[in-house]
Amino acid sequence: MSMFDWLKGADKPDASAPAVDSCERLALYQRAWCPYCQRVKAVIAELGLEITEYDTNEPEHLQALLAGGGQRMVPCLRIEQEPGHYYWLYESMDIIAYLRQHCGGQS
Ligand SMILES: N[C@@H](CCC(=O)N[C@@H](CS)C(=O)NCC(=O)O)C(=O)O
Known about the structure:
Layout: H1 3-8, E1 26-30, H2 35-47, E2 52-55, H3 59-69, E3 76-82, E4 85-90, H4 92-103
Parallel strand pairs: 1-2
Antiparallel strand pairs: 1-3, 3-4
Helix pairs in contact: 2-4
The structure holds glutathione.
Glutathione binds at residues 34-36, 72-75, 91-93.
């Protein structure tokens, strides 16, 4: 893979991450100063997606991330596979690959 592809996020997506019928079912746990989060947010903007963001500097959002995903690391994409049931996708490159595969055609 070229450096250009790497920067664009051309990795293979995490195969176990569930598909969603709408990207309204996604939420991004992030922090403002995190460069990995910025990379994900640049792709969200590029794809024209509206994805709710939760800043884990807020204790309640950090607590939700820890309780659901098990790690405090950001970025993390929360995927609602069924109402109230979530899959927590870590790693910026996996998140970017997921967004490109599942939400690339939406505006
Ligand atoms: N390989 C990860 C690295 C993410 C990462 O290192 N995030 C930092 C913030 S920039 C983090 O959350 N570190 C753990 C912590 O702060 O507790 C990715 O690409 O998403």
